[in-house]
Design goal:
There is one protein chain. By secondary structure, this protein is α+β, with helices and mostly antiparallel strands. It has helices at about 20-30, 90-100, 160-170, 230-240, 270-275, 275-290, 295-304; strands at about 10-15, 35-45, 45-55, 60-65, 75-80, 105-115, 115-125, 130-135, 145-150, 175-180, 195-200, 205-210, 220-230, 250-255, 260-265. A hairpin with a 5-residue loop joins strand 14 and strand 15 (about 260-265). Helix 6 runs antiparallel to helix 7.
Length: about 300
């Protein structure tokens, strides 16, 4: 089932491998396909491939835009193998694990854990990390793929505040499960978030705190694109989410927790994929000068 009106789309930044990575992922997950590949020219990173793809019905976008940011496990993707939806869920999880393991690194081995009969956390050869989980079919249903935010370092302990913040900013929002660390789970502090999930714009996300020593934190390599229908929505999200003025660039912003978002007009996809090379070049040159996107200016550039 494809979420046709998916409003929030994870965006992956690669040096040169966007197309190759998208081909790799779409070959591994069921119900997956590359939907569009567009090249834009004369950007600060030179020529960039922009790849739109779907994995198990969840939309993603990837860009090859130079070695500026490196994907790390602060944002990972939980993949729910639900026996009530998926025949051979247990075999399938092993197959997917084996494919993602080629050239990858296991962060938590595929094994039985208190919270799942079969679970593993793997960082693949492109640096992207996946938490594969055999889901308990008794529980409330969740989508096959759910982005997960790990609050570490100076953000550790902020997961709950972040969930409350996102629920207040986005529409169609609700809370899901919450599990807290208990006494004796050091270095994690009692009461901080071991696991919680929440839905914004009808899309599920996970948030977790971890006090363990991690050599990474949120960065621009994984951001979330928010598609807006009009300038009013663009202005609203920009004002609510942007907390780091020097990170504002080409529709990108950073929130108070260090998570990167791109606030983009819904029609941007059409402007970039169903356009002539001249139109695309004009739109690219227009948006490279912007911080927050100005829809009127983008349309002018598009229409020439």
């Amino acid at each position: 089932m494809s979420q046709t009106n998916q409003i929030i789309v994870p965006h992956l930044w690669y040096d040169k491998e966007a197309k190759e990575a998208a081909e790799f992922y779409t070959s591994i997950f069921p119900d997956s396909k590359i939907t569009n590949i567009t090249s834009i020219h004369d950007t600060p990173s030179g020529d960039s491939d922009i790849v739109s793809f779907e994995l198990w019905g969840q939309k993603f976008m990837a860009i090859s835009a130079g070695p500026y940011f490196k994907i790390n496990p602060s944002v990972s993707f939980i993949v729910n193998f639900d026996p009530s939806r998926e025949k051979r869920a247990s075999e399938k999880i092993t197959e997917v694990w084996n494919k993602l393991s080629e050239g990858g690194t296991a962060l938590m081995p595929l094994d039985k854990y208190p919270f799942s009969e079969k679970y593993g956390w793997i960082q693949d050869k492109y640096g992207l990390s996946w938490q594969l989980m055999l889901t308990n079919p008794e529980g409330e249903e969740r989508p096959a793929i759910v982005p997960s935010l790990l609050f570490v370092g100076n953000q550790c302990g902020n997961a709950e505040e972040a969930v409350n913040f996102y629920i207040s900013v986005f529409k169609n929002a609700k809370r899901g499960h919450i599990a807290r660390y208990t006494n004796g789970m050091e270095p994690d502090k009692e009461g901080t978030i071991m696991f919680s999930d929440f839905s914004i714009e009808n899309q599920w996300f996970v948030a977790m705190d971890s006090a363990h020593e991690h050599k990474f934190s949120f960065n621009e390599a994984i951001s979330f694109m928010v598609y807006c229908d009009n300038q009013e929505e663009i202005d609203y999200y920009w004002e609510k989410l942007s907390a780091v003025p020097e990170s504002e660039q080409c529709g990108w912003l950073k929130d108070q927790f260090g998570v990167s978002w791109q606030i983009v007009p819904s029609e941007m996809n059409e402007m970039m994929s169903k356009s002539t090379p001249e139109q695309r070049a004009r739109v690219t040159q227009a948006f490279l000068k912007m911080k927050k996107f100005d829809l009127v200016e983008l349309r002018k550039a598009y229409e020439g």
